[in-house]
Write a structure and sequence with these properties.
The structure is a single chain. The protein has 260 residues and is of the alpha+beta class. The chain has 2 domains: 31-162, no CATH class; 170-258, Immunoglobulin-like, CATH 2.60.40.4070. The protein contains 2 helices and 18 strands. The strands form 4 sheets. The protein has a 6-stranded mixed beta sheet with strand order 3-5-2-1-7-10. It has a 5-stranded antiparallel beta sheet with strand order 4-6-11-8-9, with no helix packed on it. The chain is globular and about 55 Å long.
Length: 260
């Protein structure tokens, strides 16, 4: 009797593990990436990603249709043979696919792209124009009208897997998002091991503006918000600033731009 109960319990446990593993695998295949396109003073927030129930065409309830804004510089996703432009475009998960991102820039100004993939999981690659790895880089810039291809590859090679595992075990300071920003921006970083962490904001003259972190922290991912104020609680002028992190022997510095 006891043996039979153990067998039943083991079968239930194995079934639960299989269901849980399948749910995690499916969740890893479903993702959404926010991407901001800034052309001059115009900012446009778009999204792209994968869903299990999506197709390569227009999916009502997933994809979001938009209309051209009232200015000559804007960005949108486009699906072949679909008459409308999209603010959000989702494709079928689990297979290689591409998104078509168009930038209409009649003024021929520079356009800046900012995206955030730090919360994504799973084994895949995400490239912009087959040259920019969107899992590593977080910004790109272009000039004039552009037709940009974003490519999703779900199965990485052994070399890419090895690199990805190395990245997960490393220290990293990510580009703030959004950037440029007003009035707040988010800064994310990754710690490989426990230790004292200092993260500070400096102006272009190297003067300390704000200390955001000055404490011991455990290994893991962190994100924090800078509200554009100094250590005295005063709003700082618009302009270029730098944020730097020190965690043990790891040091990194990146730029951020406050606009008003």
């Amino acid at each position: 009797m006891i043996k039979r109960r153990l067998i039943i319990f083991w079968m239930i446990f194995i079934t639960f593990i299989r269901i849980f593993s399948f749910a995690v695998a499916q969740d890893n295949l479903n993702f959404s990436v926010p991407i901001r396109v800034q052309i001059g003073e115009n900012k446009l927030d778009l999204k792209f990603g994968c869903r299990e129930n999506a197709t390569d065409g227009f999916d009502n309830g997933l994809d979001v249709v938009t209309a051209p804004p009232g200015f000559n510089a804007y960005a949108y996703f486009w699906i072949n043979e679909f008459p409308n432009i999209l603010k959000e475009d989702y494709r079928k998960s689990g297979q290689e696919t591409q998104w078509s991102l168009h930038i209409a820039n009649a003024a021929s100004d520079s356009s800046f792209l900012y995206w955030d993939t730090t919360d994504l999981t799973g084994e895949y690659q995400l490239f912009l124009n087959n040259s920019i790895n969107m899992l590593i880089d977080t910004t790109a810039s272009f000039f004039g009208n552009q037709h940009i291809i974003i490519t999703y590859q779900p199965n990485t090679s052994s070399v890419e897997k090895s690199y990805g595992e190395t990245t997960k075990r490393s220290f990293r300071l990510y580009q703030n998002y959004p950037n440029p920003f007003n009035p707040t921006t988010t800064i994310k970083y990754q710690l490989h091991k426990d230790g004292k962490v200092t993260l500070q904001i400096y102006d272009v003259l190297g003067r300390l503006v704000r200390t955001l972190v000055n404490m011991k922290q455990a290994a893991g991912y962190y994100d924090l918000c800078w509200d554009g104020k100094n250590d005295r609680g005063q709003s700082v002028p618009a302009g270029l600033y730098f944020y730097g992190i020190q965690a043990g022997e790891f040091r990194a510095v990146k730029k951020l731009l406050l606009i008003k």
